[in-house]
Write a structure and sequence with these properties.
alpha+beta; five-stranded antiparallel sheet; 27 helices; 21 strands; 16% strand; binds manganese (II) ion
């Protein structure tokens, strides 16, 4: 951008500007930065110029723009505070010096330092809010060009942006600034999640493009009929806000339905409420989502009406209804208040965002303990996050609801994978405890540990969740490898040979594998017959023994079941299956007394979080919240029923849960499994063989159990059996 372009931009919103001041600052900064280059080879001066341009979008006064042009001169060139005072006056000198101090602060540092640095930051911005506005624009440009920064600086800058500057922009009511900062930081901190969410959003947008356009059209028509002048624009949620909502509510991307929105901007407050009436008469609203921030503004001065409606193809659409003036404040926040534009540092008394800042500063003046300050202030600033510390004082910021498991994974994936317990402020606590601000968390580790799959349902951060899944996959693979090894050892021994894992290598290509582990796992899963491996190693071996079935027909009477692989058998008589008495009603609250209730195919037991799906003509079907079957109902939000278990101690009802057992294909296996289940006081309701391979049998068993604890105990007993290689709950 040229000098005259900058002046023209400011003149467009501030006709009586001090043009000379802008020109002087432009020339001074350009000369001072001289031939300095940014990492990408651009002249350094392009950076302060872009920062100034960002601030012209916020319509700030020429003094602020001048400060933007000068903001790096004291730190990075031979310019001095004294010289700037002489050329531009004391006020601008103070602001530039404030920014110079901020540049030296490392906000992602040790606990005590961090508190002190944040204190300095708030003190610097409290002096004159324009310091913050320039700092935010500076950070925004640095984030936009993060790939031009030195690699070792990038992570710190991205983290600091996510933890401090984006929430601060939000707190000051600058929503656009906050969203852009968050998304740029998100892209760097979690590139995979960013990519996934972005791709999925684009996909959904395309899928629903027609209906969205139709809603927009209908809305514009109805408003026109009623004589309301309105600007209607579509808006899609930003990847980070979608991602953080998924984390907060532990939802999958598929379960998030309200990612489309419209903004309706009208002339006055009266029209806002008339528009609301039209919207609610046209489409059904989603209960509990209506918010009137016009009558009760948010703390950062934000005003708007929010409501969510169900569109023609059942997708949810959020509407924001506001006036032009409200829109201006929603976008520019504290920068929208007229007084800043006049170059005065007196601040509008109407701004409650500023009032918050004032209160914070007062508290600062009183408290002299940096830690106490952290507790009081920072925490109010970042309401949807919790801040905890490692024993060495490193700060870990997490979404609200985070547990020590999330904390462990946030520190390092290895710490999470080996976490077995924790101390919170020195006391041993359960790892599922919800952390609160200021907690010092020490993770107790065991090298031999692997994270239990159940943790997946407890954690709130994506990092922890994906790491737990990965560990579960690895553990299963390891089990299959071990099983493959056992099977091969037995096959080789039967033929009077010895199996050696490493001896397998030269023969792998014959059975189509490159890696010993892969081959062992394939044998374990029953995909690769052990006899094939044996023949590959000993091609000339002559089997002199008579071939015999793997199972004797007379064995325990189970023969029929095995030959009928794939068919479902009713199995009464096993265990203590209830018989005779009338079925007890299923005690579930929220379903209504006269509604028929049944369970989904994979069952649900007390202790599971459950939801109900309304099935026309059938009543309500209950699923555990994590059931993949639920994705089929994503686009039908009004079929979802909020249900809860309603149990009392006298209850004598058992509940269904489907499990999948992989077991060695050996005589007596099935009997042993049935006995184990019976001894655990669980019933077998159905049993079916889903796959039999030469060495492994996989069966689906529908159990009836008292609750989740009972189910877990039964599964653990089964896992302890030598013949059982794997037991998992299906969809549970
Ligand atoms: Mn800068």
């Amino acid at each position: 951008m040229r000098q005259y372009e900058l002046v023209e931009r400011v003149a467009a919103y501030k006709p009586n500007l001090d043009e000379a001041l802008l020109n002087r600052a432009y020339v001074y900064a350009m000369q001072k930065h001289g031939s300095q280059k940014r990492v990408n080879g651009d002249p350094y001066f392009s950076h302060p110029l872009e920062v100034a341009a960002i601030l012209t979008n916020l319509h700030l006064d020429e003094a602020t723009i001048a400060v933007a042009l000068l903001h790096d001169t004291i730190e990075d060139t031979d310019a001095t505070r004294k010289e700037i005072d002489q050329v531009f006056g004391h006020k601008i000198g103070t602001l530039v010096e404030g920014l110079t101090k901020l540049k030296r602060l490392d906000l992602v540092s040790k606990k005590a330092e961090q508190a002190e640095n944040l204190r300095k930051l708030l003190l610097a911005i409290a002096d004159d809010i324009r310091v913050l506005l320039v700092k935010l624009a500076d950070r925004l440009h640095n984030m936009r060009t993060l790939h031009h920064m030195k690699p070792e600086k990038r992570s710190r800058i991205a983290q600091e942006t996510m933890d401090i500057y984006a929430p601060l922009a939000g707190r000051m009511g600058m929503q656009d600034m906050r969203e852009e900062l968050e998304n740029l930081a998100f892209k760097h901190i979690n590139p995979e999640a960013h990519e996934t969410v972005t791709a999925r959003l684009a996909e959904l947008l395309e899928k629903h493009a027609d209906t969205i356009a139709k809603i927009e059209e209908t809305l514009a028509e109805r408003l026109k009929e009623q004589g309301i002048v309105a600007v209607v624009s579509g808006r899609q949620k930003k990847p980070y806000s979608v991602f953080s909502k998924m984390q907060r509510k532990a939802l999958s991307l598929e379960q998030l339905s309200d990612i489309f929105g419209f903004r309706v901007i009208v002339d006055d407050e009266e029209d806002c409420y008339r528009t609301l009436g039209i919207v609610h008469r046209t489409w059904p609203l989603v209960p509990g989502r209506f918010k009137d921030y016009i009558s009760i503004p948010k703390q950062n001065d934000y005003r708007s009406i929010h409501t969510t409606i169900v569109g023609p193809s059942r997708q949810r659409v959020e509407l924001q209804i506001r006036t032009h003036a409200m829109h201006h404040i929603a976008e520019y926040g504290i920068a929208a208040h007229e007084l800043y534009k006049d170059g005065e540092h007196a601040l509008s008394t109407e701004s409650s965002a500023y009032a918050w800042l004032r209160r914070t500063i007062e508290m600062l003046a009183e408290g002299d303990q940096p830690e106490e300050f952290l507790e009081n202030t920072k925490l109010e600033l970042f309401q949807d996050q919790v801040f905890c510390f490692t024993p060495k004082g490193r700060l870990i910021a997490m979404p609200r609801g985070a547990t020590p498991i999330d904390f462990a994974y946030a520190v390092h994936t290895d710490v999470g994978d080996t976490c077995v317990g924790c101390k919170i402020d020195g006391r041993i606590m359960p790892v599922v405890t919800e952390l609160t601000n200021g907690d010092e968390v020490e993770i107790i580790r065991s090298k031999a540990a692997t994270p239990p799959p159940a943790w997946e349902g407890v954690v709130v951060t994506g990092k922890a969740r994906s790491a737990i899944r990965r560990a579960a996959r690895l553990a299963i693979r390891k089990q299959y490898c071990g099983l493959g090894q056992q099977i091969l050892e037995r096959t080789f021994t039967r033929a009077g040979k010895t199996f050696a894992r490493e001896g397998l290598k030269p023969y792998l290509s014959k059975v189509g594998f490159r890696d010993v582990e892969d081959a062992l796992a394939a044998v374990g899963r029953g995909e690769l017959p052990s006899s094939d491996v044996f023949r590959a190693v000993h091609p000339d071996y002559q089997d002199t023994r008579a071939s015999k079935p793997t199972m004797k027909p007379e064995e325990e009477g189970w023969f029929n079941l095995r030959t009928a692989a794939g068919l479902i058998f009713k199995m009464p008589g096993l265990g203590k299956l209830r018989g005779g008495e009338a079925p007890t009603p299923i005690p579930i609250r929220g379903a209504g007394d006269d509604t028929a209730v049944q369970f989904g195919p994979d069952g649900a037991v007390p202790g599971d979080r459950i939801v109900g799906i309304l099935e026309p003509g059938k009543g309500i079907t209950i699923y555990p919240i994590q059931s993949p079957a639920l994705t089929a109902f994503d686009d039908e939000p009004d079929r979802w029923i909020d249900v809860r278990w309603d149990l009392d101690a006298e209850l004598t009802t058992r509940f269904p849960a489907r499990i999948r057992i992989s077991a060695l294909n050996e005589p007596g296996t099935l009997a042993e499994i049935a006995e184990t289940i019976a001894l655990n006081d669980a019933n077998i309701h159905n049993l079916s063989m889903v796959a039999t391979a030469p060495d492994v049998t996989v069966m689906m068993v529908d159990l009836e159990v008292w609750d989740l604890q009972h189910l877990t105990r039964t599964l653990n007993q089964l896992r302890g059996k030598a013949c059982v290689t794997d037991v998992v709950r299906v969809n549970g």
